[in-house]
């Protein structure tokens, strides 16, 4: 098995992001709280030099809360301003503006000294596919949506959303490309749906995922699918077959449809129905 992936359109996305970053004060990077390091593209560190940095551990509603708290500490220790959240809820957005203000405190003070007051902080969302960038922007914008429109000269063609009196958010996120030299990272990215399932067949991927579940969340499958099988001592292939049978995923001749069962498994994981899970431990 070999996973490697670099979509060609990312070159254009990177160029656009380099341009956009020049216009902003703070880069807000969305990570998947279930796989915070795997969903982080370290290249953003070079693109965002001299900018304030904030990390949002998104989809925290589906991650293991205790582990998310540790990941928050991990990123704070690296110098990031950090929040974890469920971006689908636009009720929890006040801490976002508060944290942006806190992260840009020095810049605001510098502006004041130079006589610039009330210039809004400009922020931009970045992240790899499927971490929730659009969902976040919609929720944050809904709170107080005023499109500021184009700023002639400086920001030609850019749309800014005014949030409250002191934050402006670029309405299109910067799409980062998933990056991995390590197969384990590639697998986590496939589990969370940030890289295409087509890299492996769905059932091959599911067999790997069952390995992870056996070690970390061994009751999740029996609880969800109501299957009567000794998870620890069964072959992954057998387990997937049982899921197929339990969910009536059958081919002609009543053969279990493993790809369909795998699709159900990932659908359930990606929407939190398998329970709250974190795929990744903090490195030593
Ligand atoms: P992207 O722009 O970064 O590519 O991600 P996008 O906002 O499209 O979100 C990808 C999927 O993740 C969407 O689900 C979205 O609803 C879900 N999502 C985003 N943020 C959160 C979160 O904080 N918690 C949870 N539980 N889910 C989140 P989808 O099934 O692809 O679409 P939809 O049917 O929900 O519209």
Automatic annotation (TrEMBL):
Domain (CP-type G) ranges: 10-178
Residues in the signal sequence: none
Protein name in UniProt: Ribosome biogenesis GTPase A
Classification via InterPro entries: G_CP_dom, GTP-bd, GTP-bd_ortho_bundle_sf, GTP-bd_ribosome_bgen, GTPase_MTG1, P-loop_NTPase
Lineage of origin: Bacteria, Bacillati, Bacillota, Clostridia, Lachnospirales
Gene symbol of the encoding locus: ylqF
Function: Required for a late step of 50S ribosomal subunit assembly. Has GTPase activity.
Family per record: Belongs to the TRAFAC class YlqF/YawG GTPase family. MTG1 subfamily.
One family name in Pfam for this protein: MMR_HSR1
Subcellular location: Cytoplasm
Alphabetized Gene3D superfamilies for the sequence: 1.10.1580.10, P-loop containing nucleotide triphosphate hydrolases
Coarse class of the protein's main subcellular location: cytoplasm
Record-linked PANTHER family: MITOCHONDRIAL RIBOSOME-ASSOCIATED GTPASE 1
Keyword Nucleotide-binding: yes
UniProt keyword terms in alphabetical order: Cytoplasm, GTP-binding, Nucleotide-binding
């Amino acid at each position: 098995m070999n996973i490697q992936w670099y979509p060609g359109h990312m070159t254009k996305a990177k160029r656009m992001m380099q341009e956009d970053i020049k216009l902003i004060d703070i880069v807000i990077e969305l990570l998947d709280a279930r796989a915070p390091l795997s969903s982080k593209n370290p290249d953003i560190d070079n693109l965002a030099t001299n900018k304030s940095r904030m990390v949002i551990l998104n989809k925290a509603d589906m991650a293991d809360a205790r582990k998310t708290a540790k990941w928050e500490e991990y990123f704070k220790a690296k110098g990031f301003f950090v929040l974890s959240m469920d971006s689908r809820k636009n009720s929890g957005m006040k801490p976002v503006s508060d944290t942006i203000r806190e992260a840009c405190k020095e810049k605001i003070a510098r502006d004041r000294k130079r006589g610039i007051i009330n210039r809004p902080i400009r922020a931009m969302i970045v992240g790899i596919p499927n971490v929730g960038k659009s969902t976040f922007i919609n929720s944050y914008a809904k709170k107080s949506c005023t499109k500021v429109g184009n700023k002639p000269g400086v920001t030609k063609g850019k749309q800014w959303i005014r949030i409250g009196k002191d934050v402006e958010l670029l309405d299109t996120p910067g799409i980062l490309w998933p990056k991995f030299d390590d197969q384990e990272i590639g697998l986590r990215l496939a589990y969370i749906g940030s890289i295409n399932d087509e890299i492996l067949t769905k059932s091959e991927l599911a067999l790997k995922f069952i390995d992870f579940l056996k070690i970390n969340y061994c009751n999740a499958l029996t609880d969800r699918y109501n299957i009567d099988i000794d998870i620890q001592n069964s072959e992954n292939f057998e387990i997937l077959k049982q899921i197929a049978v339990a969910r009536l995923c059958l081919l002609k001749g009543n053969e279990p449809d493993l790809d369909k069962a795998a699709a159900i498994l990932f659908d359930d994981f990606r929407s939190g129905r398998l329970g709250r899970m974190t795929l990744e431990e903090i490195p030593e």
